[in-house]
Design a protein that fits this description.
It is a single chain. By secondary structure, the chain is mainly alpha-helical. It is built from 13 helices and no strands. The longest helix has 37 residues, at 246-282.
């Protein structure tokens, strides 16, 4: 079997194994049950488990990106944290946009600043929660796709696979809630677009450091710091707005992910083209 055929097989096995827990949880358990919550938690590690099993089955000895590589790469670790802070600011903007003119009190004093620092620390310490995804999507699927197609296309395909990995939770109301136009397909589309560009940012961090840890820290900080939106709009009326307009809020919240990710997508594409041109000129 050629290397290309082996990598095609690896991609197929990986995708099936990564999605299996999600499908099992969605088919056999109700979203509000404890069993579903347990399956959902296990599913968050399914990309990492799929990576390991696929590697064993296919005797894959490619890089696992498990070295910390902190020396000389501090700026990329810091970049992930700064990215999360930028996202949190845009979260506040999206909260205001979705509130349809409702005045949200911007009470950001010492208490809120201390809480924000606590969230950053929590994001850094809790990075292990997101290793399950980064060890799968960035350390295995994306590199394997890059061996089969141009890097820009690999980023798109990887993002779509990652986005559709959320299909069962989205159908069960996670992320976007219920009752929005085109449900659940518009939810699938929004998640895939977000994952393509957010994935580009995380791929950039992984490529530059040859490590999954900067992307895991970034992923963790983004998800945890997003709680700042709740801090800014801490009142019952605002909670009701979010519940009624969950899809609009989530889409607005994805805009900074997409815009920043688009920059990294372009950077990675330009580096790919430059590398290809260099290889052609040398040959």
């Amino acid at each position: 079997m050629t290397d290309k055929k082996k990598d095609i097989l690896r991609v197929i096995i990986f995708i099936v194994l990564a999605n299996l827990p999600m499908l099992i949880g969605g088919i056999f358990f109700k979203s509000e049950s404890r069993a579903y919550s347990f399956i959902a938690y296990i599913a968050s590690y399914s990309p990492a488990i799929a990576h390991i099993i696929t590697r064993i089955i296919t005797k894959d000895k490619s890089s696992m990106y498990l070295r910390i590589n902190f020396k000389g790469n501090k700026k990329y670790y810091l970049m992930g944290i700064i990215y999360a802070l930028i996202i949190s600011v845009f979260e506040v903007v999206s909260v205001m946009a979705v509130s349809s003119g409702y005045e949200i009190p911007l009470n950001f004093g010492k208490k809120e600043f201390a809480l924000l620092l606590f969230l950053i620390a929590g994001g850094i310490v809790g990075f292990y929660i997101f290793i399950g995804e980064e060890f799968g999507w960035r350390a295995y699927l994306t590199p394997k796709l890059e061996s089969l197609m141009p890097e820009p296309l690999a980023l798109i395909v990887s993002g779509i696979v990652w986005g559709m990995w959320h299909a069962v939770p989205i159908t069960n109301g996670l992320n976007f809630g219920f009752g929005y136009w085109g449900e659940p397909y518009t939810g699938f589309l929004a998640m895939c677009i977000s994952c393509i560009f957010y994935g580009s940012t995380l791929t950039y961090l992984t490529k530059k450091t040859k490590s999954i840890y900067p992307a895991s820290i970034c992923h963790s900080c983004v998800d945890i710091i997003r709680i700042v939106s709740v801090i800014v709009g801490d009142n019952p009326e605002f909670a009701e707005i979010l519940e009624k307009d969950s899809f609009k809020y989530c889409v607005f919240a994805m805009i900074p992910d997409i815009l920043i990710g688009a920059v990294f997508f372009v950077i990675l594409t330009r580096e790919y083209i430059k590398h290809n041109n260099k290889c052609h000129s040398e040959n």
